[in-house]
Specification:
The protein has a domain of 31 residues. The chain is 0% helix and 53% strand. It is built from no helices and eight strands.
């Protein structure tokens, strides 16, 4: 995942050539709200997100 300063959120999946491929951009806010989810906890080595389906 890449959280950009302008509020853009990119998630990466493994593509056909075994390389990271970005998915369509989402958005995030400083309150922890994501386009399709919410940040539950954040520590230096773990980010837990509750994704909405």
């Amino acid at each position: 995942m890449e959280f950009r300063p302008d509020g853009t959120l990119l998630t990466y999946a493994i593509g056909p050539a075994d390389t990271p491929t970005p998915s369509p951009a989402g958005h995030w806010t400083h309150t922890g709200t994501l386009t399709n989810g919410h940040i539950v906890t954040a520590t230096p080595d773990r980010l837990e997100i509750r994704w909405e389906t």
